[in-house]
């Protein structure tokens, strides 16, 4: 004490800072030590009393499994690769270990998944707290991150904006942006031709093109390597900007120069780029007293905070403008409000353009039939905007990208689909000649007005969603004890008998293997791993009898937590593919292999080109007419 009292003020401040830093650093280390002790208990004594010990278990080969469990093997493999491998070995129901030996049971059983995701139980199985907190920190506490009563209340308000009639109204807008994408590809070809001739100006560049793309020697001089993910992400962002908020993002023209587009790109990237150390920090931040970890002044956290501020500023102005507009409309109306029944009558602007999703959502939130407790606050409304972008833009771009890759690797399917689209476009053009000039002008950017009626296109989209869903998996945790039924008896781990249900203790985690069950040979047959759109014309009885969600996949989940924008995503994919395939042919780049990774959504990078980032370069060739 005497030594301390002799310190000068600057020395005392410096010493205090050192002690504070040591305390801040030591607290997480103490919790990590506690986690390691708990993990050792789970591996030893806990296994003796494990209620799931009769379920087949993955044999870990990781020397650091006490920390990583089987998570590192999963994360360093292609999405679902390890899970499919383990399913082939252990069956559709098995258990594995997450970080710090937290056990999970994987349920690739349709009856079990329908039970967990059913209306009566969906809110008993929320996402783990650390997952919800992470999503909320990035995209806001909107529909994706919300759980329980909060989710049910938000969905009730948002659902009318995604009703079938509302979605259909957006078709012409989506066609317009798909046509812009086609023209942008033509612009890229012009730039590529100038580059090859050495005519590009000093400040001129080809957006989305890397040095590897430029250095690759193509055999066909009419072709070019185009990063399809780069352009599809910008197209779907522009689409969601217009149909979601009536805002022109112009992302396809400006790239990431627009501050909102740039902020969104960073926030989305922060979800997609979580390494092992960050995964541990996310898990620790859930622990009591450690929530401050999320707010450490790291470069990443500061940038995310600044990006969220940009998004929040835009969101606040959008919400305020729409509320003023709707209040003025109501004041001019003979009625003092709008009922739920009258909602569909209010659907178009004075110019005939459909009202945006957010306008419909705010209108529904102001309906006279709602109780004050049922309405969303301004903060909740703003959270929905960022949620709408990540759910309605990034996942759709990803699904379109993988659909193109599947078509590029299965050329007979691509050729067959293009021929069908060309026949449909020719028929549509002939029928359009009979329409009034004003009506023809309305469909100027639309080669096929009713793409949904083209069965083979629908089959291709369904098969791409089955094979490579943009979100391959998710996780749930039980809020209370439950018994989950199974579709058939499964062999016990010890080989002594079978079991046809699973007891799920409170607090235990379930892995929802979307991609795994969609590649299950038990359901889809021996060719489950093959891209075969024709299978949808004659589905196996095992799939039909499983009574899976509409569409016969779990790609959009099921029940109250199902994707509210499913029909919009499907329509976008159908329209974008129809435009691209009528104008261009797609091929893989010979010698370039992709490594897939799941960071919420499925992404890929070219082997040996990791430093060039996540992308999907394909050889694109204009169709000769």
TrEMBL record:
<dbReference type="GO" id="GO:0004497">
    <property type="term" value="F:monooxygenase activity"/>
</dbReference>
<dbReference type="InterPro" id="IPR002401">
    <property type="entry name" value="Cyt_P450_E_grp-I"/>
</dbReference>
<keyword id="KW-0560">Oxidoreductase</keyword>
<keyword id="KW-0472">Membrane</keyword>
<keyword id="KW-0812">Transmembrane</keyword>
<dbReference type="GO" id="GO:0020037">
    <property type="term" value="F:heme binding"/>
</dbReference>
<keyword id="KW-1133">Transmembrane helix</keyword>
<keyword id="KW-0479">Metal-binding</keyword>
<dbReference type="InterPro" id="IPR036396">
    <property type="entry name" value="Cyt_P450_sf"/>
</dbReference>
<protein>
    <recommendedName>
        <fullName>Cytochrome P450</fullName>
    </recommendedName>
</protein>
<keyword id="KW-0349">Heme</keyword>
<dbReference type="GO" id="GO:0016705">
    <property type="term" value="F:oxidoreductase activity, acting on paired donors, with incorporation or reduction of molecular oxygen"/>
</dbReference>
<dbReference type="InterPro" id="IPR001128">
    <property type="entry name" value="Cyt_P450"/>
</dbReference>
<feature type="transmembrane region" description="Helical">
    <location>
        <begin position="12"/>
        <end position="34"/>
    </location>
</feature>
<keyword id="KW-0408">Iron</keyword>
<dbReference type="GO" id="GO:0005506">
    <property type="term" value="F:iron ion binding"/>
</dbReference>
<dbReference type="Pfam" id="PF00067">
    <property type="entry name" value="p450"/>
</dbReference>
<dbReference type="InterPro" id="IPR050121">
    <property type="entry name" value="Cytochrome_P450_monoxygenase"/>
</dbReference>
<feature type="binding site" description="axial binding residue">
    <location>
        <position position="563"/>
    </location>
    <ligand>
        <name>heme</name>
    </ligand>
</feature>
<comment type="similarity">
    <text>Belongs to the cytochrome P450 family.</text>
</comment>
């Amino acid at each position: 004490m005497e030594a301390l009292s002799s310190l000068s003020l600057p020395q005392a401040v410096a010493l205090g800072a050192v002690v504070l830093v040591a305390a801040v650093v030591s607290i997480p280390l103490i919790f990590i030590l506690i986690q390691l002790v708990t993990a050792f208990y789970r591996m030893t004594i806990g296994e003796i009393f494990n209620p799931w010990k009769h379920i087949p278990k993955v044999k870990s080969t990781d020397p650091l499994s006490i920390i990583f469990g089987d998570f590192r093997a999963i994360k360093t493999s292609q999405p679902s690769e390890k899970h499919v491998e383990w399913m082939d070995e252990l069956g559709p129901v098995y258990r594995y270990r997450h970080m710090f030996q937290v056990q999970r049971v994987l349920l690739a059983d349709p009856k079990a998944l329908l039970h967990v995701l059913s209306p009566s139980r969906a809110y008993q199985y929320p996402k783990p707290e650390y997952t919800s907190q992470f999503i909320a920190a990035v995209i806001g506490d909107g529909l994706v991150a919300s759980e329980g009563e909060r989710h049910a209340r938000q969905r009730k308000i948002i659902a009318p904006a995604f009703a079938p009639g509302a979605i259909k109204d957006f078709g012409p807008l989506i066609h317009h942006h798909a046509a812009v994408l086609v023209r942008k590809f033509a612009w890229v070809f012009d730039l590529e031709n100038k580059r090859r001739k050495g005519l590009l100006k000093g400040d001129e560049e080809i957006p989305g093109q890397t040095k590897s793309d430029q250095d690759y020697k193509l055999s066909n001089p009419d072709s070019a390597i185009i990063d399809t993910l780069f352009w599809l992400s910008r197209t779907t962002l522009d689409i969601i900007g217009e149909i979601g908020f009536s805002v022109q993002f112009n992302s396809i023209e400006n790239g990431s120069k627009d501050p909102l587009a740039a902020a969104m790109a960073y926030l989305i990237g922060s979800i997609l780029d979580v390494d092992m150390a960050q995964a541990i920090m996310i898990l620790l931040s859930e622990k009591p007293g450690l929530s401050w970890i999320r707010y450490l002044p790291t470069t990443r956290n500061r940038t995310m905070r600044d990006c969220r501020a940009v998004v929040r500023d835009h969101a606040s102005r959008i919400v305020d403008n729409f509320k003023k507009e709707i209040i003025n409309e109501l004041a001019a109306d003979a009625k003092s409000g709008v009922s739920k029944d009258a909602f569909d009558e209010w659907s178009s602007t004075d110019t005939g353009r459909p009202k945006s999703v957010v306008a419909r959502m705010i209108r529904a939130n102001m309906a006279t039939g709602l109780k004050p407790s049922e309405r969303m606050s301004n903060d909740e409304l703003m959270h929905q905007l960022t949620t709408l972008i990540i759910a309605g833009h990034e996942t759709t771009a990803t699904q379109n990208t993988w659909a193109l890759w599947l078509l590029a690797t299965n050329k007979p399917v691509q050729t067959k689909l293009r021929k069908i689209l060309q026949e449909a476009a020719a028929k549509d053009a002939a029928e359009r000649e009979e329409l009034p000039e004003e009506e023809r002008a309305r469909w100027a950017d639309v080669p096929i007005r009713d793409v949904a009626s083209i069965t083979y296109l629908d089959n291709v989209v369904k098969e791409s969603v089955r094979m490579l869903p943009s979100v391959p998996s998710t996780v749930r945790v039980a809020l209370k004890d439950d018994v989950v039924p199974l579709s058939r008896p499964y062999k016990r781990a010890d080989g002594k008998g079978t079991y046809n249900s699973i007891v799920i203790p409170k607090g235990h985690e379930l892995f929802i293997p979307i991609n795994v069950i969609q590649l299950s040979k038990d359901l889809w047959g021996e060719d489950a791993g093959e891209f075969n759109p024709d299978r949808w014309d004659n589905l196996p009885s095992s799939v039909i009898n499983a009574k899976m969600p509409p569409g016969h996949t779990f790609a959009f989940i099921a029940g109250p937590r199902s994707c509210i924008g499913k029909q919009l995503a499907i329509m976008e994919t159908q329209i974008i593919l129809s435009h691209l395939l009528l104008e261009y042919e797609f091929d893989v780049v010979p010698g370039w292999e992709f490594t897939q990774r799941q960071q919420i959504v499925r992404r890929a990078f070219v082997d040996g080109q990791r430093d060039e980032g996540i992308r999907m370069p394909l050889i694109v060739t204009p169709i000769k007419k």
